[in-house]
Amino acid sequence: MLTNRKRVIQLLTVASQQLKPDAIGVSAQFISDKLDIQRSTVSLYLNELVHNGEALKTNTRPVYFVSRSTYDQNPEKFQEVTGTLAISNQPGITNKDPFRKLIGADASLKNVVNQIKSAVIYPPNGMPCLLVGDSGVGKSFIAKMAYEFALTEGLVKGKFMVLNCAEYANNPELLSSMLFGHVRGAFTGAETAREGLLASAKDGYLFLDEVHRLAPESQEKLFQYMDKGSYRPLGETKTVSHSNARLIFATTEKTNIDFLQTFLRRIPMVIQIPSFRSRTKQEKLNLVASLFLNEAHLINRNIDINSEVTAQLINADLAGNVGKLQSIIKLTCAEALLKKRKLGGPLQIKITDLPADFTLVDAAITTKGINPIKIDYHMSQIKEVVVRERTRLFEFANEIISISKKLAISADRKIYFDSTVRTANRIADFVSFDLKRPQAESVLGFLETTIKSVLSNFYLNFGVNRFNSNSHLLALIVLYLNDFEDDRQVPELKTTLLETKQQFGQRYELSEQIVQAIANQLSLQNPDLYKLFIFNFIFAQKEQLIPIKTNAVIVTHGYSTAASIATTVNRLLNNSVYEAVDMPLDASVDEVVTELNRYFKTINTESDLLLLVDMGSLTRLEEMIKHHYEGKVMMMTNVSTAMALSIGQKILQNQLSDETLADIASQVKPQMKVMSANQKTKVIVTTCLTGVGGAKYLQQIVKQTTADSIQVITKDFHQLKENGQQDPIFDRYNVKLIVGTDDPGVSGTPYLSVEELINPEIGNQVFMNAFPGMFNTQQLETMNQILVRAFTLDNIASNIAVLNPQKTVVQVEQIVKIIERSLASKFDVYLRISLYMHLCFMIERIVQQEPNLDYHSLEQFQHNHQHFIQIVLDALDEVQHYYQITIPVSEIGFIYDILKGRVDLSNVD
Q1: CA-based angle 46:47:51, to the nearest 5?
Q2: The dihedral of CA 638, 639, 640, 644: what is its sign?
C-alpha cells in the first residue's frame, strides 16, 4: 500500500502530465481534495519535494506545483508555468540554460557567456577556448557551465575532466602522461599502460587549468591533437590514438610569454573574465548573498547580514576575487558562530565578525542602496530588508512623475499645480521631521551654501531670493536622495523630464544647474532623479509668491535657526514671506551686514524692510544698514515663531505699519508656568496581544522577578494600542515600562518584549533606564535567572487553573511541532515562549467557555488566510477532540499575529 507521500508524488506527476497549455500548475488544495489528505500535510510533502529538486513551484499566490521530471521532459509545453516559476529560490533547480545561475550572465558576463556558447555549439566538436582572468574570478566554474550547456544542448554525453597543469609543472613527464597516457615502460615506474585524460574525456570536455604551466613539448602535442584529433601516448612510437574530447583552457597570465605561438593560433576563442572589482554593484551584492546562502546550508542556520558588512565586502579590494570573497565569508560565519553558537535565532553578521586580516575600507564608505540581507536556509531564500526611507523615496518619485505628466499636457494647470504643491510639502515635511537619519551640520551647511549660490543667479526670473529658506529644504532633500537612492530604473523618468524641459524650460534649467553644482560635492548615482525632485520643489515654491510691499528677513545666530523659523512660518502662511540669514555665534555685526548687502542686491531696496532678529549685537544692525538701504527699515528683537506668524499675516495683507508692529510687540510676551513634581505611582504595565491570561501571567512573573518592589498592572492590548497616551491609565499612574508579547506602539513609554525581557543584554539596560538606582548588577542577574525558569512550558502550564498541567504540556508541545512542520519552519525559543503562553491560556479560556472573539478584521482574516486557518485547525484537532471544544477563528487570528513577521508565511498566505 502506498504511503501518503508517495500518493502525493504520484498524483502530482499524473496531474502535471495532464496540464493544459494555459495552466500554471497543480495546487495543494487540488491534491488534498483528490486524495482526502489534510491540505497542511500535502503542502508539507510538496515543499519537501521542491527542496529536494523533485518538484517546481510558482511564485504566485496561491502557489502551484509541477513535477520536475515532467517539466524537464518538455519545458516548451509549460510556457505559462515557466513564466511564474520561483526557480531562483529553489536549491538544485536550474533552467534549461545552466548559465541562468551564473550571477552577471545578463550584465558584465553577458559577452563572456555569448562567446562560450558560440564556442560550444560550433560544429562539429566546438571550438577550443582560452579563459583568461585573475585568480578566483570563476574560470573553473564557467568552464563547468560550458560543459553543462553542451549537455543540455545534446552536444556531448561524456565526462568533464579537469587537470591543473600547475600541480605537475615540475614534472613535465608526469604531466604529459596524465594528459596523453603512456605505454608500459615509457618511463621508470611505468609498469602498466595507462590511458590519459584525453581518452577519459571522450565525448565530453577536458578542462586544463593554469595551462601556461604546460611544457612546450606538451603544447606541441596538444596543437597536433587540435589539428587532427589524434595523439600518441607517452612512449608510443607506432600506434596513434584518437579522441573527440573538447578542450577548454584557463590561465591567469595576461601576457603570452609562456605559450608557443603555434599553440595559441589553434585557440580561436580567447575570453577575458572580468575581476570582482569590475563587476556591477548589483552583481557583487548577489555574489555576497549567494555565498552567505551556501554557508547557511552548511551550518543549518538562518543568517542576517547588516548593511555595513555587505558594503565592506562589495567595496573591498580582493586580490583573490570571488574565491577570496568566499573564503572571507566562510571565516566570517565561523567567527560569528563561535560567538553566538548557544543563542537561538538567526546568526547575526556584524563588522566585528570579519576576519582579523580583512582590510576595512575607508570608514566613510557609504551603505547607500544597500539593504540588510536575511538568509532563510530552510527555503533557500535571500531577502533584502526593505528600508522604509528608500521605499518612500521611490513612492515620492512615482507620485511626482504622475503629476508632472499631467501638468505638461493639461491646458488648465491649476488643479495639477495644487497637487504639485501638496507633494512638495509632504516631501519637505518628511525630510524635516520624519527622517531619522541625521546629517553632519557641516555637510548640510556646505550643501546649502552651494544651492544658495545657484538660486541667487535666478532671482530675476523666478522671484526666489538668494537667502530664501528654500535652500535649506533643498539641501535636506538632496541629502535624502543621496542617502537612499540606488541603481534601480524609475519608469518614465527620462520621458517625464524631457516633457518637463519642453514645457518649463527656465525652471528646468535651474534644476539642472543645481544638480550640476551639487555633483561637484556629492556622488550622484542617478542625476535625473535629483532633477525630478528639485524641479518639483522649485515649481511649487515659485507659484506661491505674490506681490508683497514689505521685504522681511529673519536674522539669528546659530545653525539653521532662522531657516527653521522662516520655513515653518512660510509653510503656515502658504507663501514665501520671510528670508532667512543664519550667522555663526561668534559672527560680528560687520559680517552680518555683509551678508545682508548681498541679499539687498536681489531685491527692491526702496520698499519697506522688516528685520526680525534674536539677540545681542544684532540689535545694533539698524544703525549700520542705514547707509546700505534706501527704504524704511523696521526691526524687532527676540524673534519667535509666534511673532513671525502674526507679522507675516499682516505682510500678506500689505497692512504692516509702525502701529501694527507696536501692537504685536505688546501682545507677544513670554508666559511662565511651574509644574509640580509628578507624584503618580510608578508602575509597569503588562499586556498581551492574545488576551488577559497572558497579561496576568506576565504580571505575576514581573512582580516575582522584581521582588514586588514595583507595582505591576495589566492592561488590554487593543485598548492600549488604540488610546496610546490618552488611555486613562496614564492619568492615574506614571507608566515607566510596558512589557508584552507585542508592541502596542505607545509613544514616549519604553516597550520591552518577552524576548528582550529574557535577554539580559537588552532587558537589564531597559530596567536600569526606567528605574535608575533601584537595581544593582547582582539583582539583575538574579532577575534574569528567575525569568528564564518562569518561561519554560512546564512553568507556564502550572499557572493554568482548571486544566491538567502535565497533559497540557504534552498537548501544547505537539501543537507547536505540527505547526512548525506544516510551515516548514523551525521556531526560535522566544517565538515558542509566545506560542506556549497563548496556547495554554487559550485552551483554558475556551474550556471555560470564555473564548476571545474580539479579533480585529475577522472577516478579512478569514477570507485572506484560509490555508493558514486550516493548518492551525489541523494542529488543534486532538485538543478539540479531547476537550470537546471548538476553536473559533478569532483565536487562530491571534496565533497568526504572533507568527507574522517572525516566520515566512508566504507559502500559506
Answers
A1: 120
A2: positive
3-state SS, residue 713: strand
Helix 692-705 vs helix 777-790: angle between axes, to the nearest 10 degrees? 140
Cβ atoms within 10 Å, residue 453: 14
Mean pLDDT score, 690-711? 77
Give the strands of the sheet with 303-305, arranged side by side: 347-349, 303-305, 373-376, 381-384
Mean pLDDT score, 836-856: 82
Residues 286 and 270: their CA atoms lie apart, in Å, by 27
User: How many CA within 13 A on the CB side of residue 770?
Assistant: 23
What phi, psi does 250 have (nearest 5°)? -140, 145
Whole-number Å distance between alpha carbons of 442 and 561: 15
Contact between 614 and 638 under an 8 Å Cβ cutoff? The reply is: yes
Of residues 317 and 53, the one with the higher pLDDT is 317
> Prior bond to 438 cis, omega within 30?
no
| Residues near 183 by beta carbon (within 8 Å), at least 6 away in sequence | 190, 193, 233, 234, 235, 236
What type of residue sits at position 57?
K
**404, 501 Cβ separation under 8 angstroms:** no
Cβ-Cβ contacts under 8 Å for 388 (sequence gap 6 or more): none
* Grid cell in block for residue 900: 507574522
Cβ distance 589 to 623 under 8 Å? no
Percent over 70 (pLDDT), the chain: 87
What is the Cα–Cα distance from 823 to 816, expressed in whole angstroms? 11
Strands (E), 586-628: 608-613
Sign of the torsion angle spanned by Cα atoms 683, 689, 692, 696: negative
Q: Largest Cα–Cα distance in the chain?
A: 121
SS3 198: helix
> What count of other Cβ atoms lies within 10 Å of the Cβ of residue 310?
22
CA neighbor of 320 nearest in space, from 294, 357, 351, 349 = 357
How far apart CA 432 and CA 452 sit, in angstroms, is: 18
Condensed to tens digits (0 to 9), the pLDDT of residues 417-450 reads: 778 888 888 888 888 777 755 455 556 777 777 7
Q: Give the span between the Cα atoms of 629 and 596, in whole angstroms.
A: 10
What distance in Å separates the CA atoms of residue 736 and residue 899, rounded to the nearest whole number?
Answer: 28
pTM above 0.90, yes or no: no
Whole-angstrom distance, CA of residue 278 vs CA of residue 77? 39
Nearest to 162, CA basis, from 178, 176, 151: 178
Sign of CA dihedral 186, 192, 193, 194: negative
- How far apart (Å, rounded) are the C-alpha atoms in residues 715 and 333? 42
For residue range 727-750, list pLDDT tens digits in order: 888 888 888 899 887 788 888 888
Distances (CA, A) of 594 to 383, 583, 589: 55, 11, 9
Residue 320 CB contacts under 8 Å (≥ 6 apart), including other chains: 135, 136, 327
- Cβ neighbours for 505, distance < 8 A, ≥ 6 positions apart: none
Question: What value, to the nearest 5°, has the Cα angle with vertex 125 and ends 122 and 126?
Answer: 35
Centroid of chain to Cα 211: 42
Question: Residues in the chain, how many?
Answer: 909
| 743, 766 contact by CB (below 8 A) | no
Which cell is 749 given? 513609554
For residue 530, the number of C-alpha atoms closer than 13 Å in the C-beta half-sphere is: 29
d(CA 310, CA 353): 12
User: Which residues are within 8 A (CB) of 765 and not within 5 positions of it... i.e. 6 or more apart?
Assistant: none
Place of cell 540689535: 619
In whole angstroms, what is the distance from residue 739 CA to residue 669 CA? Answer: 44
Interatomic CA distance for residues 285 and 294, integer angstroms: 14
Residue with grid cell 545552466, as numbered in its chain: 98
List, in sequence order, the alpha helices (H) in 658-758.
658-667, 692-705, 717-723, 728-732, 754-758
- Give the C-alpha separation, 292 to 280, whole Å: 19
